[in-house]
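Exam revision sheet. Question 4 asks you to relate a sequence to its structure. Input first:
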Amino acid sequence: MNKTLLCSKRILFVLSFLVCTVTFINGHPNAFSFSESSWTPEGSEDDVSSRSLSYEDITPSEEMEDLDTEYSLDDVEDDLDDFDEYNFLTNNKRNPNSRADKSFRNFANYYMVVNSKGAVVGTKDLSKCMQSGIFEVGRTPTGKPFYWNKKSRKYLAIDPNGNVYMSPTQNSDTVIYTINDSKDLSIYLYRIVGQNQRLYLDLSPQSSTVGPGNTRNTTKFRSRNGLKTC
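Answer key, structure tokens:
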């Protein structure tokens, strides 16, 4: 009788052990895994891949927006300005009414300013540029460019004889064009007179104009705009 009871207890123990073992195996997160590495807490995360981006979530390169082919260095919104370089004066094709504050310095290091007598002159003094060398550049509703000095509240002008002055109102003398030189990021400011003759603005340091055959460092400018305009 005692032997039978002892035998039954052993059988129950073995069965209990087997049940516990099977239950543990079935509940293990990596049960029957063929991985050669041992189980770690990091390895027990549920289906990490399901939380990753699927291929459909990634925009193929051919579906990405291309740069506007009309965007060029001729747009006034193309700001190449930084703290060390002067940039192109640009024209705005998309919004003729937009305006930007700009300063101008030629390759002889003269800033274009308006002095106390109202004359256009060149200076190498940065503080004077900040005071009287900031021009609001834009276009009229008819598309004519203008350069309005914020200190004197007058417009940069060149008369038919090539004299440079500041005009209180807009007229044919205040229509000043630019041409860009992409080789050195420079621009030329000029007025057209007669039969498409160009008179280029010159600062050396007094202001004057020269013909196409006489351009030099004093007629080549870089413009700058932004928070630190000069």
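Marking note for examiners. Residues 31-94 have pLDDT under 50 and may be disordered.
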